[in-house]
Structures are given as C-alpha cells and as structure tokens.
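User: Teach me something about this protein's shape.
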Amino acid sequence: MCRQLLPTLIVVIVFILIVLFSGLRVLREYERGVIFRLGRVLPKEKGPGIIFVIPFIDRMVKVDLREDYFDVPHQRCISKDNAPVDIDVIIYHKVVSPLDSVIRVANWRLAAVGIAQTTLRSVVGDINLDQILAEREHINTVLQEKLDEVTGRWGVKITGVEIREILPPTAVLDAMIRQMEAERVRRAIVTEANGKRESAILIAEGEKQAMITKAEAKRKALSIRAEGRKQATILRAEGYAQALERITSVAKTVDEKTMALQYLETLNRIGDKNARKYVIPSEALEVLKQIGGAVKIANPGSMERKK
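Assistant: First, the predicted structure itself:
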C-alpha cells in the first residue's frame, strides 16, 4: 500500500515545490511590485529583493521608479498675436507613489501627454510670438507647474519640461533671418567705427606724447645751454676781475714818471691816427705840465739859449 502511494506523494511534493518556486519574484533596486490579491490591492508595495507571490491568487504589477521622459508630438499652436507656431516638448518624470500610479489612472503616460498638449496650447495662446521665441524658460516653468498639479494625484512627479524645438511660420523665419543679417551688419559697422576711433585716439595720444617728449628735450637743452652761458659769463667776469686786480696791484707800484711815459705813448698813438679832433683828458694835461717842469729843471741852460 505504501509503495503504491509513494509515486503519488512524490508527484504532489514536486508540484508543491514547483508552485512555491513559481511564486518567487526578484525585484531590482529601482523596481517596486504592486500586489493584487483576489482583486484587492495590498496596502504596501513590495521590493526590492526577493518577494513571494501566491500563485493563482496574487497578481503583481511592476513599477519602475527611475526618472524617465516622453515626447509630446509637434503641436500647432496659435500665439496671442495670431501667429501659428509648431512646438516640440520633452517631459521628464519620476514615479514617487507606485500604488497611486497603478490604481488611480489606467495609463498615466497617455494622460500626461494629453494634458501637456492642452496646457501647451493654453500657455502659448497667452503670449506673443516674440515672447515665445525669447522666453522658453518661462514656458517650461509654467508647463511644469501645471502638469505637476495634475500628475501629483497619480503619484507621478514632473521633474522637468524642455522645449526642444520651436518652428515659426516661413514668412516670420525669413523676416528673422533678414533682421539677424541687418543686426550683424550694424554690429560690424559699430565695431569698425569703434576700431577707427580707438586708432585715432591712440595716434593722437602718441603724437601728444611725442610733442611732450620733444618739448621736454628742448627745455632741457635750453636749460643746459643757458647754464653753459651762465658759467661762461661767470668765468669771464672772474677773469676780468682777476685782470683788474692784477692791473690794480701793478698800478700801485708805478711812479709818476712811468705814468707820464705811458701818457706820452698813448698821445703818440693817438697822433698817428687820421682823426681831426682829439679829446685829451685833463689829467693828461696835468701830466704834460709836470713833464715840462721836469724838463726845465733838468736843462735850464738850453732854455736860456732859446731866449
């Protein structure tokens, strides 16, 4: 009897082991498992690591907690100034509540795309085309805030919104290109004018410095020349002073007879000239009188013979 039941028992044990092993699940670090037991969700998600799911009773839904993104297709939006524009948006998201992301919305990605499309049209319709092209960050911020308000109840956090591409109408694009070319030409003209102005300033500054240098050199040369003339005048005056001192010292040693002879020599030189008038100092006449008196004293006989 036992031998007859042994194969059946082995089959039952193997089946039980297979069932038990089939209930084992391995969840990675970034994965969580939402368990539905007989249709009712368990209050807490499972994972990470090895978890056990009761076969034929529990059903597990995996939820990825990593940050991910999805594209919003090109949207034709009308701006406040009635200009059509195509906008392409990327939305970054992250699941923060696995339970809410599974039980509160059927497919939160599709729902987020629909909300992003309608919100984008609403935001773009409130601003002009120039603001759309210049204020991407503002549009990104407004979209992120409005999407996060809606997806928050689904357990999804919108971490970022980026406008990838903005395509204005062809006519507007051509006008922008012409405006950009005109701006570049204007900048080139301004840069060239500034270069010429800087060059003229540098040239004028160089000429000014050259004139200052020349004037300084001329002033120094005149100063040196004047100093030389002053020194020459001082030396000449000192020479005259020394000569006068020498003459004065020599004149003190000359007696009256020598002075008389000097006067006679001077009168002789004056007489050699062809002048019609002569100016004879009174001192010379006094000297001549003295000379005459001396001659009379020296030769009294000759004077008497003349008489």
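Now, about its shape. The two ends are 218 Å apart (CA to CA). Residues 170-252 form the longest helix (83 residues). If you'd like, I can walk through any region in more detail.
User: That's plenty for now, thanks!
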